[in-house]
Design a protein that fits this description.
The protein has 117 residues and is mainly α. It is 59% helix and 0% strand.
Length: 117
């Protein structure tokens, strides 16, 4: 009887260097960027972010000017309303007093005197 001998060597899957969900091929980019190009990209990025910030700040300033204009208009209309209320009170008071029964029963005094004289 001849003994069975295994002539093939089996390797465990993990010991071969390959494992699940890993890339076995690495790609190297052909284009390399130098330090000057990186500096230019950073400067462009900072410029773009600065412009975005300035446009947002300008929008806020525009809203501020518009709200200030509306506040001035409200103040002007409030003042005009108060003037109209005073004028209305003056006109209604004179017409009410002169047309009342008490005013009709009054007579003009013959002489006017002041106390303390």
């Amino acid at each position: 009887m001849q003994k069975y001998s295994n002539t093939t060597n089996f390797c465990a899957r993990r010991s071969s260097g390959y494992s699940r969900n890993t890339n076995t091929v690495r790609f190297k980019p052909e284009v390399k960027l130098g330090p000057v190009t990186h500096t230019v990209f950073v400067a462009l990025l900072i410029t773009v972010l600065g412009l975005i910030y300035l446009t947002q700040a300008a929008k806020i300033t525009g809203y501020d000017y518009e709200s200030e204009k509306i506040d001035k208009e409200i103040a002007r209309l409030t003042e005009q309303k108060e003037d109209i209320e005073v004028e209305n009170a003056r006109l209604t008071a004179l017409s009410t007093v002169s047309g009342s029964d008490v005013a009709k029963d009054m007579v003009k005094p013959a002489t006017v005197g002041y106390t303390g004289q």
